[in-house]
Amino acid sequence: MRFARLRLNGFKSFVDPTDLVIHDGLTGVVGPNGCGKSNLLEALRWVMGENRPTAMRGAGMEDVIFAGSGGRGARAFAEVALSIDNSERLAPSGFNEADQLEVVRRITRDAGSAYRVNGREVRARDVQMLFADASTGAHSPALVRQGQISELINAKPRARRRILEEAAGISGLYQRRHEAELRLSATEQNLTRVEDVVENLA
Ligand code: ATP
């Protein structure tokens, strides 16, 4: 899976539709302070399912919507689309039916986020798992924001372990284990209830 294109519309400082083609090899983004370089990295994280506003340098998730500046009014929504080259068919099952995947996240004021993959509406969790299984995603150690290296040097071993787990591609398993544990506990509660009912009938 290779990122091929990033499209932004109304996301942070990218008020106008912006199309960024990502070619093979190294891509550099250069520009003066405040031109939006970090916003691009945040757009990548966001479309992959980031759900912490602080990771977007905001207080609430709607802060990613263009807030108005330079005489232009605030926008009602923000959208980021990430096109992925899947010609080698390495996408996780459930998403591996096409050579090209387009993951779209859109946030509308007062209506929250919605996700689509190749036009099909999916849950945030589906998108997060898609990228986690592909050893990338919003928390991927491959995305390094300003100040993160010094944070890592000072990090506790548990935080460093998370990076190794991401690199090993097993972080998606934790979410699945958590969900399985929740289902197990719900089933155990149901069983207890059934036993109570049976006892009352006896
Ligand atoms: P530096 O080189 O200083 O790190 P940068 O190129 O990484 O800068 P960013 O931090 O990506 O720049 O962009 C900051 C700009 O984005 C600021 O001008 C800020 O006003 C603008 N911005 C952030 N959020 C929004 C928003 N919701 N609406 C409008 N503009 C926004």
Summarize the structure.
The chain is α+β, with helices and mostly antiparallel strands and 202 residues long.
Describe this structure as you would to a colleague:
The structure is a single chain. This protein is of the alpha+beta class. The chain has a domain at 1-137: Rossmann fold (3-Layer(aba) Sandwich). The chain has helices at residues 37-47, 124-133, 148-153, 157-168, 171-201, and strands at residues 2-9, 18-21, 77-85, 100-108, 112-117, 120-122. It has a six-stranded antiparallel β-sheet with strand order 2-1-3-4-5-6. The structure holds adenosine-5'-triphosphate. Adenosine-5'-triphosphate (ATP) binds at residues 12-13, 31, 33-39, 63, 65-67, 69. This is Chromosome partition protein Smc. Required for chromosome condensation and partitioning. Residues 177-202 form a coiled coil. It is found in: Cytoplasm.
Features:
binds adenosine-5'-triphosphate, Chromosome partition protein Smc, alpha+beta, 202 residues, six-stranded antiparallel β-sheet, 6 strands, globular, Rossmann fold
Q: What is the strand and helix layout of this fold?
A:
Elements: E1 2-9, E2 18-21, H1 37-47, E3 77-85, E4 100-108, E5 112-117, E6 120-122, H2 124-133, H3 148-153, H4 157-168, H5 171-201
Antiparallel strand pairs: 1-2, 1-3, 3-4, 4-5, 5-6
Helix pairs in contact: 2-5
The site of adenosine-5'-triphosphate has 15 residues, from helix 1.
